[in-house]
Write a structure and sequence with these properties.
The chain is α+β, with helices and mostly antiparallel strands and about 425 residues long. The protein is about 20% helix and about 45% strand. The strands form five sheets. A nine-stranded antiparallel beta sheet has the order 11-10-9-13-7-6-14-8-12. A six-stranded antiparallel beta sheet has the order 16-17-23-19-20-21, with no helix packed on it. A five-stranded antiparallel beta sheet has the order 4-3-26-1-28. The longest helix is centred in the C-terminal third of the chain and has 36 residues. The two termini are about 15 Å apart.
Amino acid sequence: MRKICWISCLLCVFLTSGTIMCYAQDDLSNWQYSKEITGASLGEYKTCFLDADVYKNAATELSDLRVVDEKGEFVPYYLQSSALGENNQTINYQASKINTFEKDHNTYIDYKIKPIKENADIVANLLLLKVEQKNFAKNIEVLGGYDADNWTSLTHCTIYQVAQDTNVQVILPQTEKYGFYRIVIPNNLEKIQINQMDARLDSSTVTRQSFQKEVALTYDIKQEDTVTSISIQNPNRLKISSIDLNAQGTFDRRYDVFTQEGEELVPVGLNGRIFNVKFKDLNIQNTVIPLDNKPITHTSIIIKLQNKDDRPLTIKSIKGRYTIDKIVFKTPSAKNLLYFGNLEAKKPQYDLEQYKTYIERENQQICTLENLKRYEKTPIPKANSMDFNKIFNIVIVVVSLMLMGLIGWKLSKKNQAT
């Protein structure tokens, strides 16, 4: 009797575990696309940036991404984007003015950067200026040096404070390690004085740049009374983080940003100003519409410009920057595939996600995505799937009834014997 009970339990466990194993793994026949992950050797951690093919065909939240190795097994991964910012840091440096002089109507101002501790490298990508004058606009040149005698030209830019618009920051083209900076104000008849300068390392800026790409955007323009409506197409559903309007002339316009869902325009809560003011020797402009805090993935983005009584702008072109994600995975396999294109797939949960802060500090082999492949799904008749489930359930019921009958027969036989 006890033996029969044990057999019944084991059989039920076997059938149940078989059911779990059938459904624990995703069926790759439900995925429509894959791309080869190329450039991988036998390193431990590998990474590659997602491309337009993935964003166009994957689920909006990228929940359907699957990495598969050469054995056909799923590989744990996590996604990293600039929005996470675990490793971002800001370091501020104080600077002291060590020299200033005039030459040929040009003003030269030299600064020495103080390291945060003795013998530590000075690493900066941003200079912060303080200017006493109001209502000014001036072109300047910035040079860097390892001493106060030899200088390397780094960038030219315009600093200004005009009405409600101010820009007294210098964004360096790249991260620099100079301990000295020189500011040159050409033809400084206005006697503009820079009273203070500080340096800063903003690693989030570097991170954003490495996780962004530029794209030429296609668009249509319609005039609606005093409003210019610009319809921007985003067929690949890229994560648009900024939009730059290349418009002619001098202008100052307010804007509002919408997404289009069918015939309905949905405001995204983004508005501001773009402007372009040209003088004889300099240009003050801000024609970039930032979307960094709310990247837009809709296929249609609408920008409405308020012209008031001015003529509509002549827009020559529109560029966009979009944020890209990188996928990081751990496998010894050198041949891997990235599957995507299953809108019903749920995001997998991997332990690797918990350790990404540490993994980001490890060496990661950079790979690329190539050779898009589309799979034609073979529809499986629903009836067949239903029949399989019915048959499976019938078998379990029959086996259970047989076991119950056997147990009952044994019990009745035992009662008769007693």
